Amino acid sequence: MFDSHCHLADPAFADDLDAVIDHARAAGVQGVLCILAADDEAEAVQADVVRAAWDGVRFSTGIHPHRAGAWAGRVDDAREVLEAAMASRQAIAVGEIGLDYHYDFSARDVQRDVFAMQVAVASTLDRPVVIHAREAIDDTIAILAAGGPHVRGVMHCFTGTVDEARRALDLDFYISISGIATFPRAAALREVAAFVPADRLLIETDAPYLAPVPYRGQRNEPAWVLETFRMVAAARQVAEDDLGRQLAANTLALLPALGTVAR
Ligand code: NI
User: Fold this and answer.
1) Which end of the chain has the least Cβ crowding within 10 Å, N or C?
2) pLDDT of 262
3) Do the strands 174-177 and 93-100 form a parallel or antiparallel pair, or are they unpaired?
4) From the CA of 95, how far away is ligand 1's center (Å)?
5) Is 14 left (phi over 0), alpha (psi -120 to 50) or beta?
6) Which residues surround ligand 1, an ion (CB under 5 A)?
Protein backbone atom coordinates (compact mmCIF):
# COMPACT_ATOMS: atom_id res chain seq x y z
CA MET A 1 0.00 0.00 0.00
CA PHE A 2 1.20 3.47 -0.93
CA ASP A 3 0.01 6.99 -0.17
CA SER A 4 0.48 8.70 -3.53
CA HIS A 5 0.22 12.24 -2.16
CA CYS A 6 0.92 13.68 1.28
CA HIS A 7 2.79 16.60 2.82
CA LEU A 8 4.94 14.92 5.48
CA ALA A 9 7.34 17.89 5.63
CA ASP A 10 4.48 20.14 6.68
CA PRO A 11 4.97 21.83 10.09
CA ALA A 12 1.89 19.90 11.24
CA PHE A 13 4.09 16.77 11.51
CA ALA A 14 7.23 18.33 12.94
CA ASP A 15 6.51 17.38 16.56
CA ASP A 16 5.60 13.72 16.15
CA LEU A 17 6.99 12.69 12.77
CA ASP A 18 8.36 9.37 14.04
CA ALA A 19 4.99 8.36 15.50
CA VAL A 20 3.22 9.28 12.24
CA ILE A 21 5.68 7.14 10.28
CA ASP A 22 5.22 4.26 12.76
CA HIS A 23 1.44 4.44 12.31
CA ALA A 24 1.84 4.35 8.53
CA ARG A 25 4.13 1.33 8.57
CA ALA A 26 1.91 -0.48 11.07
CA ALA A 27 -1.04 0.13 8.73
CA GLY A 28 0.89 -1.48 5.88
CA VAL A 29 1.89 1.71 4.08
CA GLN A 30 5.26 0.87 2.56
CA GLY A 31 5.91 4.19 0.86
CA VAL A 32 4.59 7.68 0.21
CA LEU A 33 5.07 10.43 -2.32
CA CYS A 34 5.79 13.52 -0.23
CA ILE A 35 4.85 16.80 -1.94
CA LEU A 36 7.12 19.80 -1.45
CA ALA A 37 6.77 23.43 -2.49
CA ALA A 38 9.75 24.22 -4.74
CA ASP A 39 9.82 27.79 -3.43
CA ASP A 40 9.81 26.97 0.30
CA GLU A 41 13.30 26.68 1.78
CA ALA A 42 12.07 25.97 5.32
CA GLU A 43 10.11 23.00 4.06
CA ALA A 44 13.19 21.76 2.20
CA VAL A 45 15.08 21.66 5.49
CA GLN A 46 12.28 19.62 7.07
CA ALA A 47 12.27 17.35 4.00
CA ASP A 48 15.79 16.27 4.92
CA VAL A 49 14.48 15.31 8.36
CA VAL A 50 11.69 13.30 6.74
CA ARG A 51 14.10 11.58 4.37
CA ALA A 52 16.34 10.58 7.28
CA ALA A 53 13.37 9.28 9.28
CA TRP A 54 11.85 6.98 6.66
CA ASP A 55 13.31 5.21 3.63
CA GLY A 56 9.77 4.85 2.30
CA VAL A 57 9.57 8.52 1.31
CA ARG A 58 10.13 9.88 -2.18
CA PHE A 59 9.66 13.53 -3.12
CA SER A 60 7.79 15.54 -5.69
CA THR A 61 8.22 19.29 -5.94
CA GLY A 62 6.64 22.16 -7.81
CA ILE A 63 5.22 25.65 -7.57
CA HIS A 64 1.60 25.48 -6.40
CA PRO A 65 -0.95 27.62 -8.27
CA HIS A 66 -1.66 29.47 -5.03
CA ARG A 67 1.94 30.72 -5.06
CA ALA A 68 2.26 31.31 -8.81
CA GLY A 69 1.43 35.01 -8.37
CA ALA A 70 4.80 35.63 -6.74
CA TRP A 71 6.38 34.81 -10.13
CA ALA A 72 4.37 37.22 -12.27
CA GLY A 73 6.65 38.49 -15.03
CA ARG A 74 9.46 36.21 -13.76
CA VAL A 75 8.62 32.82 -15.18
CA ASP A 76 12.28 32.25 -16.13
CA ASP A 77 13.24 32.75 -12.49
CA ALA A 78 10.51 30.29 -11.46
CA ARG A 79 11.98 27.75 -13.89
CA GLU A 80 15.39 28.09 -12.27
CA VAL A 81 13.89 27.64 -8.81
CA LEU A 82 12.00 24.53 -9.94
CA GLU A 83 15.03 22.97 -11.63
CA ALA A 84 17.19 23.60 -8.57
CA ALA A 85 14.52 22.14 -6.28
CA MET A 86 14.11 19.03 -8.46
CA ALA A 87 17.84 18.38 -8.13
CA SER A 88 18.29 19.23 -4.45
CA ARG A 89 15.23 17.24 -3.30
CA GLN A 90 16.03 14.32 -5.67
CA ALA A 91 12.43 14.68 -6.81
CA ILE A 92 10.88 11.89 -8.87
CA ALA A 93 7.89 13.99 -10.01
CA VAL A 94 6.93 17.62 -10.65
CA GLY A 95 4.07 18.83 -8.48
CA GLU A 96 1.82 19.71 -7.16
CA ILE A 97 1.27 22.11 -10.03
CA GLY A 98 -1.83 23.23 -11.87
CA LEU A 99 -4.63 25.76 -11.82
CA ASP A 100 -6.98 26.85 -9.06
CA TYR A 101 -9.82 29.05 -10.25
CA HIS A 102 -11.79 28.42 -7.06
CA TYR A 103 -9.59 30.41 -4.71
CA ASP A 104 -7.93 32.52 -7.43
CA PHE A 105 -5.04 33.37 -5.07
CA SER A 106 -2.95 34.10 -8.18
CA ALA A 107 -4.02 35.85 -11.39
CA ARG A 108 -5.21 33.23 -13.86
CA ASP A 109 -2.89 34.23 -16.69
CA VAL A 110 0.08 33.96 -14.31
CA GLN A 111 -1.16 30.57 -13.06
CA ARG A 112 -1.31 29.35 -16.65
CA ASP A 113 2.19 30.62 -17.51
CA VAL A 114 3.80 29.08 -14.42
CA PHE A 115 1.90 25.81 -14.91
CA ALA A 116 2.83 25.51 -18.60
CA MET A 117 6.48 26.19 -17.79
CA GLN A 118 6.47 23.40 -15.19
CA VAL A 119 4.82 20.93 -17.56
CA ALA A 120 7.62 21.71 -20.03
CA VAL A 121 10.29 21.13 -17.36
CA ALA A 122 8.69 17.79 -16.42
CA SER A 123 8.69 16.78 -20.08
CA THR A 124 12.36 17.73 -20.47
CA LEU A 125 13.33 15.84 -17.30
CA ASP A 126 11.04 12.93 -18.25
CA ARG A 127 9.24 13.09 -14.90
CA PRO A 128 5.51 12.66 -14.24
CA VAL A 129 3.41 15.62 -13.08
CA VAL A 130 1.14 15.78 -10.02
CA ILE A 131 -1.80 17.99 -10.93
CA HIS A 132 -3.91 20.25 -8.71
CA ALA A 133 -6.94 21.41 -10.71
CA ARG A 134 -9.88 23.17 -9.14
CA GLU A 135 -12.71 24.59 -11.25
CA ALA A 136 -10.19 24.77 -14.07
CA ILE A 137 -10.49 21.49 -15.95
CA ASP A 138 -10.67 23.02 -19.45
CA ASP A 139 -7.46 25.04 -19.17
CA THR A 140 -5.71 22.25 -17.24
CA ILE A 141 -6.43 19.70 -19.96
CA ALA A 142 -5.46 22.18 -22.69
CA ILE A 143 -2.07 22.92 -21.10
CA LEU A 144 -1.33 19.24 -20.46
CA ALA A 145 -2.32 18.34 -24.03
CA ALA A 146 -0.14 21.13 -25.42
CA GLY A 147 2.79 19.70 -23.45
CA GLY A 148 3.16 16.89 -25.94
CA PRO A 149 2.93 13.10 -25.92
CA HIS A 150 5.53 12.60 -23.17
CA VAL A 151 3.51 14.43 -20.53
CA ARG A 152 2.18 11.89 -18.03
CA GLY A 153 1.00 12.02 -14.46
CA VAL A 154 -1.87 12.03 -12.00
CA MET A 155 -4.87 14.21 -11.27
CA HIS A 156 -4.39 14.55 -7.52
CA CYS A 157 -7.38 14.65 -5.13
CA PHE A 158 -9.76 14.34 -8.04
CA THR A 159 -13.20 15.81 -7.30
CA GLY A 160 -14.58 16.26 -10.80
CA THR A 161 -17.33 14.49 -12.68
CA VAL A 162 -17.15 11.23 -14.61
CA ASP A 163 -16.98 13.29 -17.83
CA GLU A 164 -14.05 15.27 -16.48
CA ALA A 165 -12.33 12.06 -15.41
CA ARG A 166 -12.80 10.74 -18.93
CA ARG A 167 -10.97 13.76 -20.35
CA ALA A 168 -7.98 13.16 -18.06
CA LEU A 169 -8.04 9.46 -18.95
CA ASP A 170 -7.95 10.41 -22.62
CA LEU A 171 -4.51 11.91 -21.87
CA ASP A 172 -3.54 8.60 -20.19
CA PHE A 173 -3.48 10.27 -16.79
CA TYR A 174 -4.07 8.51 -13.49
CA ILE A 175 -6.94 9.60 -11.25
CA SER A 176 -6.16 9.78 -7.53
CA ILE A 177 -8.97 9.47 -5.02
CA SER A 178 -8.59 11.11 -1.60
CA GLY A 179 -10.43 10.73 1.71
CA ILE A 180 -13.18 12.94 0.34
CA ALA A 181 -14.58 9.67 -1.06
CA THR A 182 -15.47 8.65 2.51
CA PHE A 183 -17.61 11.73 3.15
CA PRO A 184 -21.35 10.97 3.34
CA ARG A 185 -22.25 13.52 0.68
CA ALA A 186 -19.57 12.41 -1.80
CA ALA A 187 -21.69 9.91 -3.75
CA ALA A 188 -20.62 11.50 -7.04
CA LEU A 189 -16.95 10.95 -6.21
CA ARG A 190 -17.61 7.30 -5.27
CA GLU A 191 -19.21 7.01 -8.71
CA VAL A 192 -15.98 8.32 -10.25
CA ALA A 193 -13.95 5.89 -8.09
CA ALA A 194 -16.06 3.05 -9.49
CA PHE A 195 -15.78 4.34 -13.07
CA VAL A 196 -12.02 4.80 -13.42
CA PRO A 197 -10.37 1.84 -15.20
CA ALA A 198 -8.51 -0.38 -12.72
CA ASP A 199 -5.10 0.39 -14.21
CA ARG A 200 -5.57 4.19 -13.96
CA LEU A 201 -6.56 4.42 -10.29
CA LEU A 202 -4.49 5.74 -7.36
CA ILE A 203 -5.33 6.68 -3.77
CA GLU A 204 -3.88 9.32 -1.47
CA THR A 205 -4.41 11.15 1.80
CA ASP A 206 -3.24 14.72 1.01
CA ALA A 207 -2.28 14.68 4.72
CA PRO A 208 -2.32 16.81 6.85
CA TYR A 209 -5.47 17.90 4.99
CA LEU A 210 -8.75 16.10 4.25
CA ALA A 211 -8.90 13.48 6.99
CA PRO A 212 -11.31 10.70 6.01
CA VAL A 213 -14.29 9.43 7.97
CA PRO A 214 -14.10 8.55 10.91
CA TYR A 215 -11.29 11.05 11.55
CA ARG A 216 -12.86 14.12 9.95
CA GLY A 217 -11.68 17.39 11.39
CA GLN A 218 -8.45 15.89 12.75
CA ARG A 219 -5.00 16.21 11.26
CA ASN A 220 -4.80 13.62 8.50
CA GLU A 221 -1.90 11.15 8.27
CA PRO A 222 -0.70 8.54 5.74
CA ALA A 223 -1.93 5.56 7.82
CA TRP A 224 -5.50 6.69 7.15
CA VAL A 225 -5.18 6.03 3.43
CA LEU A 226 -6.66 2.68 4.51
CA GLU A 227 -10.06 4.30 5.03
CA THR A 228 -10.06 5.56 1.46
CA PHE A 229 -8.81 2.19 0.24
CA ARG A 230 -11.72 0.38 1.90
CA MET A 231 -14.25 2.86 0.56
CA VAL A 232 -12.89 2.56 -2.98
CA ALA A 233 -12.97 -1.25 -2.76
CA ALA A 234 -16.61 -1.06 -1.67
CA ALA A 235 -17.50 1.44 -4.42
CA ARG A 236 -15.92 -0.79 -7.07
CA GLN A 237 -17.31 -3.98 -5.49
CA VAL A 238 -13.92 -5.68 -5.69
CA ALA A 239 -11.94 -7.74 -3.18
CA GLU A 240 -9.57 -5.65 -1.09
CA ASP A 241 -6.63 -7.97 -1.86
CA ASP A 242 -7.14 -7.54 -5.59
CA LEU A 243 -7.51 -3.77 -5.32
CA GLY A 244 -4.43 -3.55 -3.14
CA ARG A 245 -2.32 -5.40 -5.67
CA GLN A 246 -3.67 -3.26 -8.52
CA LEU A 247 -3.09 0.04 -6.71
CA ALA A 248 0.46 -0.93 -5.80
CA ALA A 249 1.15 -1.88 -9.42
CA ASN A 250 -0.31 1.44 -10.63
CA THR A 251 1.74 3.47 -8.16
CA LEU A 252 4.93 1.72 -9.20
CA ALA A 253 4.11 2.10 -12.89
CA LEU A 254 3.90 5.88 -12.45
CA LEU A 255 6.56 6.23 -9.74
CA PRO A 256 9.01 3.31 -10.11
CA ALA A 257 11.42 4.77 -7.54
CA LEU A 258 8.90 3.95 -4.80
CA GLY A 259 9.63 0.29 -5.57
CA THR A 260 13.19 0.67 -4.37
CA VAL A 261 12.33 1.37 -0.73
CA ALA A 262 13.57 -1.03 1.94
CA ARG A 263 10.96 -3.13 3.67
NI1 NI B 1 -1.53 18.31 -1.67
Assistant:
1) C
2) 61
3) unpaired
4) 9
5) alpha
6) 206
**Computed from CA positions of residues 113, 114, 120, 123, in that sequence, does the dihedral angle turn out positive or negative?**
negative
pLDDT digits over 108-122, tens only?
999 999 999 999 999
* pLDDT confidence tier of residue 260, bands split at 50, 70 and 90: confident
Please tell me the distance between residue 37's alpha carbon and the centre of ligand 1 in angstroms. 10
Query: 88: burial class by Cβ within 10 Å (0-12, 13-18, 19+)?
Result: middle
Cα distances from 185 to residues 181, 189, 213, in angstroms, run 9, 9, 12
Q: Tell me the CATH class for 2-257.
A: alpha beta
Q: Is the pLDDT of residue 229 over 60?
A: yes
Measured in residues, the chain has a length of 263
Q: Is 206 left (phi over 0), alpha (psi -120 to 50) or beta?
A: left
> Residue 96 Cα, ligand 1 centroid: separation in angstroms?
7
Listed in sequence order, the residues at least 6 apart from 1 whose beta carbon sits closer than 8 Å to its beta carbon are 27, 28, 29, 30, 225, 226, 229, 244, 247, 248
Q: Which residues contact 70 (CB under 8 A, 6 or more apart)?
A: 39, 106
pLDDT digits (tens, 9 = 90+) for 48-71: 999 999 999 999 999 999 999 999
From CA 163, how far away is CA 247, in angstroms rounded? 22
Residue spans of the domains in the chain: they are 2-257
The span from the CA of 172 to the CA of 208, in Å, is 28
Alpha-carbon distance of 33 to 57, in angstroms, equals 6
pTM value? 0.97
